[in-house]
Amino acid sequence: MENFLYVTLLLVIISNISVSSNVNFHLSLNYTSVLQARKNFMSLDTSNLSYDSPYSYSLPIYHRDVFEKSDFKDYDSLLDARLARCMERSVNLSYENSSRDFAQVYPIKTVVYPLQGEVVVPLWIGSKLQRELLLVDTGSRHVWWQCGPCEPKKCYKQRSDDLYYSTESTTYQQIDCVKESATCIAGSSIVHCSKEETKCFYEVKYGYYGSTITCGFMAYEIITFSNILDYARIIFGCGKNQFKGDTKFPRLFSGIAGVGGGLYTNGFETYSLPSQIGATVFAFCIPTPTSGKSSTLTFHETPWKTGRSVFPSFFLT
Q: So which residues are the signal peptide here (predicted)?
């Protein structure tokens, strides 16, 4: 009986050693694969990226690390920056949610932090089909990009793409807010019409205390999607001054594509990208940081009613 127990105990020990060895082997194998994936990602040639999409009126989207990796010495420093953005988002959301009473702030609003976004989209702009990278922002409704000629020293130097110049695009048109008053929402804290200059000026603030600010005026321009036959004339913010706030915009992108929508109908939702192309919903999957591959941002029109009225009023008494 004792021999049997000794043999059984020995078999258990051997089995545990075997399982432990297999686990260590798999951990080693996975770690090696991760290191190789990181190495491949850091050596990715961004000049050979694909901007094709199989869907009409769609756009490819990439993780910002694809275009920003050349600013870092290695993958670990790139990862540190990504984790810092995640941490900052968590801290901001935690602070914001802990300091408000949901029963008193309906409709719910949130603060937008453009510096922490993870996904960028290439847009082809104007008659020259100039490519500009815009940050995809699901929390705002404003579409803007830097627009030369800028005010002296008020546009930041973009890391990769050339600065868009409205004077070089034959499809650009400044909005005359006196003749087209409906395009410049009256009473908005973001846009206002100057009757003297006939310009619809805008100023968008991001973050607490408006630490990051873009300002300029509203205009028309043509944007082209992945398929050159798919294009749309939209109203955008022609950004003339991006240095008014305390915090600077990242050099990675040229502006922000606000795709936030339409639970609240105060008129400003008409400026969002989905609204301007007649879409009521949009969909995308966030690409993994190390894949170097794109995902797709698609716009759709729903057959059902959308808007705030279809949602139950949980906080109304």
A: 1-20
Q: Which amino acid is at 97?
A: N
Tell me the residue type at 311: F
Q: Which tokens go with 284?
A: 């995308």
Q: Is 76 exposed, middle or buried (0-12, 13-18, 19+ CB in 10 A)?
A: exposed
CA-nearest of 132, 138, 147, 83 to 113 is 138
Q: Which residues contact 41 (CB under 8 A, 6 or more apart)?
A: 65, 69, 75, 289, 290, 291, 292
The predicted model scores a pTM of: 0.77
Question: Considering just the CA atoms, what is the radius of gyration of the chain in Å?
Answer: 25
* Structure tokens given for 267: 């008129």
Strands (E), 64-190: 119-125, 130-137, 143-146, 173-174
Per-residue pLDDT of the chain (317 residues; tens, 9 = 90+): 544 444 443 333 334 444 444 445 444 557 788 888 889 999 999 888 888 777 888 899 999 999 889 889 999 999 888 888 888 777 766 655 555 554 444 444 444 445 567 899 999 999 999 999 999 988 888 899 999 999 899 999 887 668 999 999 999 999 999 999 888 876 566 889 999 999 999 998 887 655 788 999 999 999 998 877 789 999 999 999 999 888 888 888 899 998 886 544 555 668 889 888 888 888 888 888 888 889 999 888 766 555 444 333 333 32
Residue type, 261: G
Whole-angstrom distance, CA of residue 3 vs CA of residue 153: 87
The residues with which 124 forms a beta bridge, in sequence order, are 131, 224
Nearest CA to 45 among 14, 22, 66, 76?
66
> What is the H or E stretch that residue 238 is in?
strand 231-241
CA 159, 251, 236, 174 dihedral sign is negative
Q: What kind and span of H or E run contains 191?
A: strand 191-194
